[in-house]
Amino acid sequence: MNIRVMSAIALLCLVWGSLWGLVKHSLQVFPPFLFISTRLILAAITLMVVQRVIKKSIMPKREEWKQLIILSGLICFGFYATQTFAMQFVDSGLSAVLVFTMPIFIGVLAHYFLNERLNKQKILGLILGTLGLIAILWPQLHDLHMNVSLLGQVLLIGSGFFWAMSTVYIKKNFASYDKIKLTIWQLLLGGSIILIGALMFEPIDAQVWLNPFNESVLFYISVIGTGFAFVLWNWIVSQVDTFIASISIMCIPILSLFFGYLIWHEPLTFNILIGAAFICSGIVMSSLKIKSQRRHLAYSSGEQR
């Protein structure tokens, strides 16, 4: 992994690590689906301006629309809309931990669709990640009854699964595609449909939308935390294996737990800490074999020379 990729990963972790608490705040003042659709469309429009300034094409070719529509559905509805709805009932730090089970799902999906083999250490990582989920959900599982908190946690895990699906789909179909153009349309297509539905069912309070603080938070979440960050993520995925890319950003839920506790005064219960430790351990464990295999291949090729 070269210095450009490592720098991009570090920057992405900082941006996304700071984002979860701000999203949680926004969901307390904005209607959820108006918020998410505005976030996606504003990010896409900003990237359109950037694409025009650097004099690159914006419109996809006719044969590209089908794949872009599928990708937009995965990311906008499966990931963003599900996550936004669920975060109304779950703290921001815990939300990040649950969504970032995404690398566990990628380990399985990449095995079948990208020929990134699921070896023994990846399987051990999956087991540790599953134990982490059980630890986090244990209070609800111990006294099982359906409530909005449990529903929110399950939906957040589901959003992580859809993020994994969209990442694998990008790697398989858009590896060499213009990353800004890709991000524009993956956000704009689904975001526009969500906006139509939101305008039909959610109220619009002008005082909320014209509040300077709310506007600045929305700008940061949309332009930096969504548009810029997803261009960066799509580029990282194109540079390294999907599993390595997903593992490399696993400090984000830890940062989110820290910011949630420090800034938003969200509780860090023992089962959340244990669960987060298991999930992160599982993901790190899954990555070690990849590194050791690469060292072994490099050593073998050196011997042959």
From TrEMBL:
Residues 7-137, 151-287 form the EamA domain. Keywords: Cell membrane, Membrane, Transmembrane, Transmembrane helix. It is a multi-pass membrane protein. Its main location: membrane. The keyword Oxidoreductase does not apply. PANTHER family: INNER MEMBRANE TRANSPORTER (PTHR32322), S-ADENOSYLMETHIONINE_S-ADENOSYLHOMOCYSTEINE TRANSPORTER (PTHR32322:SF18). This is EamA domain-containing protein.
